[in-house]
């Protein structure tokens, strides 16, 4: 589905008013409308949006624990992985640095990444993508405002 979205972006950027499709001339506007309909159908059939394992775990952790001060002591990270796998199409399954919830999505990221600016930049980039497309990734919309605030705080760190 990612290639499909890339084609849509290319057509949207196109300066041509019409495109040749299977020997017939189609307007870019009609093709854009068709793309939007196909993408809506794709979502309606329950296809999962693509995300890396880390980003998908961030979404799950934030939705489940956004109003808590810290994660439960007995939190099983494997259950978070399973939940993420069932809800998202996982593109990168690297679990190297994803052993603990506080390392995936720290409750106080400015303090957690204080000494490691490289990891803070990677975390900020991971959140940026989720913030830009939060309506596509978050099922619990009540968790989105706190996620946006967290992202704003990270930018100011």
Describe it for me?
- The protein is mostly helical and 157 residues long.
- It folds into two domains: 2-44, no CATH class; 50-156, no CATH class.
- It is built from nine helices and four strands, in the order H-E-E-H-E-H-H-E-H-H-H-H-H.
- The chain has helices spanning 2-13, 28-44, 53-65, 77-87, 101-104, 109-112, 117-132, 134-137, 144-156, and strands at 18-21, 24-27, 50-51, 89-90.
- The strands form two sheets. Strands 1-2 form a two-stranded antiparallel sheet.
- Strand 1 (18-21) and strand 2 (24-27) form a beta hairpin.
- The longest helix is centred in the first third of the chain and has 17 residues, at 28-44.
- The model has no long low-confidence stretch (mean pLDDT 82).
Features:
9 helices, 157 residues, mainly alpha, two-stranded antiparallel sheet, single chain, two-stranded parallel sheet, 2 domains
């Amino acid at each position: 589905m990612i290639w499909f979205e890339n084609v849509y972006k290319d057509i949207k950027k196109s300066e041509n008013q019409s495109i040749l499709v299977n020997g017939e001339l189609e307007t870019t506007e009609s093709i854009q409308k068709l793309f939007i309909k196909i993408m809506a159908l794709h979502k309606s059939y329950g296809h999962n949006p693509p995300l890396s394992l880390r980003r998908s775990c961030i979404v799950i952790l934030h939705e489940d624990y956004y109003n808590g001060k810290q994660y439960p002591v007995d939190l099983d990270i494997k259950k978070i992985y399973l939940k993420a796998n069932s809800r998202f199409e996982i593109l990168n399954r690297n679990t190297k640095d994803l052993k603990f919830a506080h390392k995936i999505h720290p409750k106080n990221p400015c303090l957690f990444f204080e000494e490691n600016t490289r990891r803070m930049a990677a975390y900020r980039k991971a959140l940026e993508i989720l913030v830009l497309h939060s309506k596509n990734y978050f099922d619990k919309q009540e968790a989105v405002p706190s996620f946006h605030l967290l992202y704003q705080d990270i930018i100011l760190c």
